[in-house]
Inverse folding.
């Protein structure tokens, strides 16, 4: 299967703690999900503790896109994502772990037609950047 490189903007806020913002553009699907995971891994591996995924320019999210979001959440917990080659077994495992994770990522400004599907991930969704940043920093005791 052909995988595409996803056009993505990466920025960082300054303040109490650095927060990286990754803004992918286009569809988050079976063709682009691995690229988003790779870009998120690069942010995490650079030592960034927090990530905000600005989804305002995402027009469609497929099942592989939901898998990518879960994988990124695992990365920012210091865990390795599930192997996509495991297929449905990986998806079942994903569903079993969605609710017991403290999240070091936030989803920001998804388009209204995607909000329902994204809410099934259990990941926190925010409409404003300041609220997303504040919630990340509030869960870190050393920064409060």
């Amino acid at each position: 299967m052909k995988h595409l490189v996803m056009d993505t903007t990466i920025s960082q806020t300054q303040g109490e703690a650095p927060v990286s913002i990754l803004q992918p553009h286009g569809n988050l699907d079976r063709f682009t999900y691995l690229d988003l995971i790779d870009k998120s891994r690069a942010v995490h591996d650079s030592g960034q503790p927090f990530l905000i995924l600005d989804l305002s320019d995402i027009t469609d999210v497929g099942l592989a896109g939901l898998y990518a979001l879960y994988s990124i959440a695992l990365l920012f917990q210091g865990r390795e994502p599930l192997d996509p080659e495991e297929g449905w077994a990986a998806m079942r495992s994903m569903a079993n772990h969605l609710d017991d994770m403290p999240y070091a990522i936030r989803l920001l400004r998804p388009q209204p037609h995607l909000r329902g599907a994204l809410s099934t991930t259990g990941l926190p969704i925010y409409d404003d950047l300041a609220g997303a940043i504040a919630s990340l920093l509030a869960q870190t005791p050393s920064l409060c």
Remarks:
- Residues 41-123 form one domain.
- The chain has five helices and seven strands.
- Strands lie at 8-13, 19-24, 26-28, 51-54, 58-61, 105-108, 125-126.
